[in-house]
Amino acid sequence: MRCKETLLAESRAYERALSAFIPESDRPLVHLTPMVGWMNDPNGFCHYNGEYHLFYQYYPYDTVWGPMHWGHAVSRDLVRWEYRPAALAPDTAADEGGCFSGSAVPLDDGRLMLVYTGVQKENAEHPERQAQCVAIGDGTDFVKSEKKPVMPAALLPAGYSARDFRDPKIWRGADGRFYCVAGNRHETRQGAAVLFESENGLDWRFIGELDASRGEVGRMWECPDFFALDGTHVLLVSPQEMEGDAALGFHPGNNTAAVIGDYDETTHAFTRRALQPVDEGFEFYAPQTTLTPDGRRVMIAWMEDWETQAGKARTHKWFGRMTLPRELFMKDGRLCQRPVREIETLRSDSVSVQGALIDGDAAFRGVQGRAIDLTATLHIGNAACRRFEMRFAEDERHYTLVRCDLERGAVTFDRSMSGSRRNIPHTRTVKADCADGRLTLRLILDGDSAELFVGSGEHTVSALIDTPLTAEGISFHADGAIHVDIEKHALKK
Fold first, then answer.
1. Sequence-distant (≥ 6) Cβ neighbours of residue 24 within 8 angstroms
2. For a designed S-S bond to 385, which of 105, 107, 391, 482 qualifies (C-beta 3.0 to 4.6 A apart)?
3. Which of 72, 82, 95, 87 has the alpha carbon at shortest distance from 8?
């Protein structure tokens, strides 16, 4: 029988050996993939000792979900990543069922503390349960706390679940204390975000509930995050088993939601003012944020979906990826997003088309590619056009379509002609917010990863497409005259 103490060493040896056979050309350019095997939720996203650290849910031995480890990568600029050895393996009684999602915070003594969910398997003494654990180290190697777990389900009041108690997000308050929000399922209020505090990061007490579904926003809230942004507070959650809500933009199933409101740091009371989707696309889940040294709030998410990933062919020695990191900001009470500005350092072979009059079909020399940052600005004030289309990843047989219904104020992302052979959702429609008679579409295309930012980033659509990488065409169509500005940049490391 294998000694549990060897599990981490074995996983490090395995990932080091297997990753040597994966060339860079087998990976997206700017979307982080696992070193080998399976990846899901981002974990421990932080800036530490001059680098951004991103850990992730990880099963190195297969391209399907398995006993959860923590993978690890670092970056100095959020767009170029380097792998580090796996950080955690399920090798103690407190986490033998898996080291589930969590977060990280630098300590005053210069070390980095990871807080994660340990899963305790069902046995004769107790059913399966989840609790929060701690490991502390130098950014590469971590030692698990002798106190296992540091935040047991016994801290929760009656009504909260000991089995659905996970994904702690930790931060330091202005008072120097440690605070942590975790996801839970309440027996009557369903999905909930619960708040704890600690003087030392090891001894915790329950403060209260920040917010809950109350039967409206899913049955379980996973992967919460909580932060101040532009004079307000934002609670990010990933609801499961949610009913669709066309008015707000939520689709059925797993979603990501931003709960926007006011937070009293003295009483710890949070008052909800607004609710919105974080991303309205197909592949986006479990986002986590960090604060950059220059004060930006940056978010990254798993670019997959639990309900559709199981049927996908495994064509690489890895599966799963992260979105491009995004800067968050508030505009008119709405959470908005834009690609991190560091992506501009990868631009090359730029093409600018200003004031092009499009009436019917159009294409422009040099506007093509599968690793691009493209912005199209539609001048709709006096345009005769009512429907505008952009096709990308196009060849004689395939394309992915962005269609703008200018009368209705809507943008539809349609991947039904991208080469998919699966009966899964292929279209999503979002509102088109126009400013000063213009509509802006920004597309980050990275092989089979596509991220669309509509308007000033009020709406985003994340999607994976099946189109062969040889399909590089981009074309436009307008059903009436319209002037369009196009900026296209190839992306190269």
1. none
2. 482
3. 87
Give the model's pLDDT for residue 127: 77
Q: Is the dihedral of CA 42, 132, 228, 210 positive or negative?
A: positive
Name the 3-class secondary structure at 166: strand
Q: What are phi and psi of 342, to 5 degrees?
A: -60, -20
Q: How confident is the model over 18-67, as pLDDT tens digits?
A: 999 999 999 999 999 999 999 999 999 999 999 999 999 999 999 999 99
Helices (H), 275-381: 306-309
- Separation in Å, CA 24 to CA 61, 73, 300: 20, 15, 21
The partner residues of 403 in beta bridges, in order of sequence, read: 389, 412
Distance from chain centroid for Cα 408? 29
What residues act catalytically? 41
* 254-296 pLDDT per residue, tens: 999 999 999 999 999 999 999 999 999 999 999 999 999 999 9
Sequence-ordered alpha helix ranges (H) in 5-49: 7-19
End-to-end CA distance of the chain: 45
With 0-12 / 13-18 / 19 or more C-beta atoms within 10 angstroms meaning exposed / middle / buried, residue 455 is buried
Tell me the backbone φ, ψ of residue 4, rounded to 5 degrees.
-60, -30
| 8 A C-beta contact, residue 137 and residue 128 | no
Measured distance CA(485)–CA(470) in Å, rounded: 26
CA–CA dist 198, 224 (Å, integer): 18
Distance of CA 361 to the CA centre of its chain: 35
**What token pair was written down for 191?**
């999905």
Outline where DSSP puts E strands in 426-466.
427-431, 438-446, 449-454, 459-464
DSSP 457-478: TTEEEEEE----TT--EEEEEE
